Amino acid sequence: MPRKQIAAIATASLAALTACSSSGGTSSASGSLVRADAARPIVGRADAGAASAAVNSFGVDVFHSVADQDEGDVVISPASLATVLTMLLPGAKGQTADQMAKALHTTMPADQFANALGSLDSATVQRGLADKADLQQFDTVWAQKGYGIQQPYLRTLASAFDAGVHETDFTNPENARQTINKTVADQTNGLIKELFGPGSMSADTRLVLTDALYLKATWATPFEKYRTSDKTFHLADGTTANVSTMGSGQDFAYAQGNGWQYAELPYQQDHLAMGIVLPAAGTFDKFRTALTADQITAMTSSATSVPVDLELPKFTFDTSRQLNGALQSLGMKSLFDPSSADLSAIPAKPGPLWVGAVVQKAHVAVDEDGTTAAAASGVTVIAGAAPGQPQQQAAEMHVDRPFLFLIRDTVTGQILFLGQVSDPRG
Length: 426
Known about the structure:
- By secondary structure, this protein is α+β, with helices and mostly antiparallel strands.
- The protein has nine helices and 18 strands.
- The strands form two sheets. Strands 3, 7, 8, 9, 10, 11, 12, 16, 17 and 18 form a ten-stranded mixed β-sheet that branches.
- A hairpin with a 3-residue loop joins strand 14 and strand 15 (about 370-385).
């Protein structure tokens, strides 16, 4: 299957589409490949920049929808979720397409946006490879053997995401589910397991789209392990806990404003970085609720290199979420409504399709050496009715209370991961 090695994030995305009737077939999930002949387009800087801004705005919107309902640790992958929805977008028409585009913050035609996002991902891949970060991206489509797909849609999958369609047999849904889940697990080095749970596929399944990413990146300057020690962390509920906390006094890109501090920790070669956002004590919920993509851009663009007395907890956690409600709150209502969803640009033969579920699983681990991260996003689609600065005084940034983090491409600004840490113990 198509494989792109990208530099410094890990996410896996899947979209499963199911139709009312099933056709026979005995091909396995790794069966023959159907692929359109389409060259990768040249995408201008303006389109790539607009796609990056769109992904970031969409990602912050989704983060709010998730984090505002969860006081615990949260991580999402804007890049993964945006990619899997953008793989679906050229198959949508009418109100469904309009609502998806609006939620994704794009006014480009669907094919143009898909090509721009695919190009953005590819550029990140190339920088990651040059930086020697272990980043892998796989874009794959699975379809029931004999299920016809329109050529324009196939061409967009090929041109934008370098993806063809692997024929499989959803008349044995449990075998297909296990095969797809194993593929995602393999593509994320075992970090994302069971993206689709038992019973999530049936003999009516017709199409599954997957985008799997895995990241293992090393800090440009690793934290010295002898400086790691247990320190007090102030939890959101007012209690405290002793957590393993790393220390560093090196130069970082740093900015501060009214009620916040920001420090950026670069990975090797500086093309990817983790940003840490520390709101003032007692203001975390208020700050997070008001956070915007423009505010993140202002933080990152205003940061300058200064010595920083940084203390940062080590943290590792996994999350698993259904995102139907979050996306509906952003305006993607028609997509989930059997009576109004329009995905008619996908099947060769007419038939109603609507999205049953959108899910994402993610993993992040941060220690003295660097970051390992992975994510998988899944969409099931069902047919028919519902069932060099002068020396400056060192800044002090002791991350001893709930904080936000992001992993971004420092060249394009695209946010690959966005999350919050309420309790570093996981």
